[in-house]
Specification:
6-stranded mixed sheet; alpha+beta; single chain
Amino acid sequence: MELGVPNNHNYYEEDSLSEAYLMEQTGIRSKRKSRDLINNLFSSVFELKTGNSKLKKVQIIGFKNQKSKEEDNLILKLYTKENSENQKEYFIQSGLFSGVVYHKGCKFNITTRHGDVFLRRMLNFVNDIYVDTEKSKASKKEEHNEFQYIIAYLFIQSLEKASVLGLPKEYQSVIQRSHKVRGKIDLNAYLKRDIPFRGKLTTTYREQTYIQEICDVLYLALKKLEIKFGKDINNKLFSINQLLKQNYSGQYPNIETLQKAKNHRILHNPLYASFKKVIEYAEIILLDNDLSPKDNTLETTGYLFDISQLFEVYLEKLLSRHFKDWYVTGQEELKLYKGLFYNRKMFPDLVLKHKYSNKVIVFDAKFKTMQLETKQSKYSDLDRSDFYQIHTYIQYYQSDVIIGGLLYPLSKPLIKNKAYSNSLFGKEDSNTAKFIVDGVFVNENMNMEDLLNSENEFLDRIENLIDVSLNTKQKYLEVI
């Protein structure tokens, strides 16, 4: 059985599933067996969160070092309810993660929102690649899961970046028996083998050589990608691929080889530290079959991507590249009530500090659906907790903050007079920060050119707002 849902789905229980629909998705002709499978799947409330012990075999791939560990974030929730007509309704809720989860013989595809173009653009920013590149000619084969392409993309981009200074090398002792003397003569070998002297000597010397385990893991990962997606996917790594092929041992790496590559001491060298992440991606590529259940066990397995982190990194780097006069930091630590028993730490997603003054802009990034609906209801796009949270951050910076707000991937073009407030809480006081809801307008039908135009429009809006805010603040102080 296979079910697909987008991330951040069904938060308000707006999309229930009927038994008839689920039975159709099982693909089983026998109604009794189909019903048994559904009842087993929804027999109790199943809730998978980031702090859950069931995550042991679910691999989560993040895109930044998350400082706040307090939140227990939802990944997947399954449960049933009875409606007013005493009929069962089935619910699947998802959080801000995308990927694949296998549970009780069912495969859950948690898809990303807003299309492949926006996803590829965000992945480029993770690897500090800002040039708009053409989409690879490699095609995804239907028998493979779509999320394997994300892993392939991350692996190729990170390997390309990490290998700029070459593949990992270290000095190793090499023993040579020849007519030439290189390094030190091995006296023990000379006494045992070279009396009487026959023209050859055994010598030992130290030479920089490539790490065998790392070469094997990287080469086999590239070969596996070629089989799945075609040779075009590795075009950008042609020279690296040839070098790895020359140094390949000829043996398929086992679990022990993977562990040696992941834990090799050379990765502690800052020169090669970036290969840690490359090898993590390679491990997932090589072991992807192990992530698929071999039978209908009760074990929960899978792999997931924290798309909310990906969106935060994208915005952080997009803003830092454009606003040269501002320091842009993500997850800045704010310490509250030091020394008291109720002390806390807060981590706003994006803080911009002006290089030539003490002015501050604070944003929270939310990878959630934003339709910019004006009607207030329980289905309102802007969550109450998000609304209160950003206002707390703004209050923390007090008079230094000039702008605060929430940033989303917008589902509709922004209308400023409906999303921008000239003062905090809407008060007619020019000395307070401006509060906004904004973001990049995206949809799954956009091409890269459309997306770049949408980014520029977003950056222009923020830039104009900064200019107005700084000038207004200065005029207000002059009046005082």
